[in-house]
User: Fold this.
Amino acid sequence: MRDEKYNEDWYDDDRYDEDRYDADRYDEDQYDEDRYDEDWFDDDGYGEDSYEDDRYDDDRNAGRVGRIGRAGRTGRKTSEAAARRAEHERAVRQAEQERAARQAESRGRSSARNGAASGARSGARGGVRSGSRRRKPGAELLFWPVLLVLVCIFLWSGYHFFREFLTYREAEEEYEKLGELIVVRKEEPAAEKEEDAEETASKDEEWPALSLDIDYDGLLAKNADFTGVLYIPTLGLTYPVAHSRDNEEYLARTFEGTYNPSGCIFLDANASGDLTDLNSIIYGHNMKNGTMFGSLKKFQKDEELCADHPYFYICTKDRILRYEIFSYHTIPADDPIYTTVISAQNYDALVKKAISLSEFKGRREDIDFSAQAPIVTLSTCWGSGHTHNFVVYGVLDGEYRPEDGAAQETAGETAGEET
Assistant:
């Protein structure tokens, strides 16, 4: 049966002739080495295990030789389809690699543009990053508005600084002109006799205010509210004092009445013009450039200034009043001292409070307050927000009348000591 099934007629030369399987169909171009490379036909896919002898033994393949032709054609078609798929997959992988390369190149160019700024920030934190992170879309939109705001703030601050500088300078120039009416003599006055020279020098050392040449009539002509001249030798402070009518006018007006935030040194509106009250308050601005009462804070920084000569003076046309400093410290801006009228009943309480809060450790301990001599309080703002003031207390220690040519001590000596 087998001999008849697989006879020579079935496998005749015409069916499998050389023309059908010619060299053109299976040429080298169609089955080139690239298409059927070693990677595609790897050992794992077509190894010895896959084509073992048991699978192709004679018994199992008996009677199937007739299908060899058809199976061969089907295998070739399958191989061609597999080859085309492999080639397509290889083309896809190559396209993906090229796209990835282009993206990497694009990111590299972007990182190069931001490399300087990104490198500086990253380097401060311990290392320079690759710079591959992209800038957020809204970052550039926010940059210019923020920059504009900062520039406006800078210009506004500069304007206010310049205006404040001009304001200070205008006030300084005005008070420099007033200084022509208040002259501090640098040289001792000439004396005919040596004894007179020694006596004059001793008097000027005890009463430095005697070295002032003050044009009282000229100052009164400048301002009808003129009360006297305040002189603090250790600070080099010399200013005319105006008597305020409402404690507001001279906050922003100079001695000559010009509007200026520097203001003027002025006596409290409720105080007596002759300074006979038990406590008279004199106000002045704490200017940043040290003018007005801006120099009072030097007492806090250097206690020796006050310890060397703890006095300030108020000079009028008829007399010179000397006040001994016994306390200085800060108090709240709404302290009762500004609203309470000091009388004989609360005078001692004021003195006790001032001494207990005093920052002046070099004050004289034996000052006698039993006579309740008049006190003058110098007050200026302190710190930011104007919530506190800095005050300097002085008690009347002596009085000098130029027409008499002699000084009279009124207070400040130890009780029981002759004056």
